[in-house]
Every structure is written in C-alpha cells, then in structure tokens.
Amino acid sequence: AHAADEVMWMECMRQMGERLHEQGQSQQATMRGEAERREEEHSMHVSRLNHGFLTERAHLDAEVSDLRVRLDQSCEEGAAAMHMMRQTRETAEAEITKR
C-alpha cells in the first residue's frame, strides 16, 4: 500500500509539473505576443511621427523657397525703382542746368 501511495504521489507530482510547464509556456507565448504587438505599435507610432515631421519639413521648405523668390523679386523691383528715380533726378538736373 505504501509503494502504491508513493507511485500515486509521484504520478500526481509529474502531472502537476506538466501542468505548470504548460502554463508557463502559455504565459510566455502570451507575453511574447504582447511584446511583439507593443513593438509593432511603437514602430507604427514612430513611423507616423517621422512622416508628419517630413511632411511639415517639406511644407516649410516650400514656404521658405517661396519667400526667397518673393524677396528676390522685391529687391529687383526696388533696384529698378531706384534706377528710375536716379534717371528722373538726372533728367531734372539736366533740365535745370540748361535753363
């Protein structure tokens, strides 16, 4: 009877060990899946942030480029106006000198 009890106890321990092992593997798989899911979410978030940054950067680059063109045009217009004023002044001075 004692040997039979011992065999039963050993079998019980073996089954309990198997169940614990299966539970451990199951938990490990769950945790691994959760870690992969979080990593994927993080990666997508970083990707979205990066895309947003690049889009904003392109928008700002285009704005700066537009402002540079407008500034160049203003400078050219200013230079042309100065030239015309100089010519007008010289013409007026020449007229005054003739008189």
UniProtKB/TrEMBL annotation:
Stretches the record annotates as Disordered: 19-45
Domain of life of the organism encoding this protein: Eukaryota
Biased composition regions of type Basic and acidic residues, renumbered to the chain: 33-44
UniProt-recorded name of the protein: Uncharacterized protein
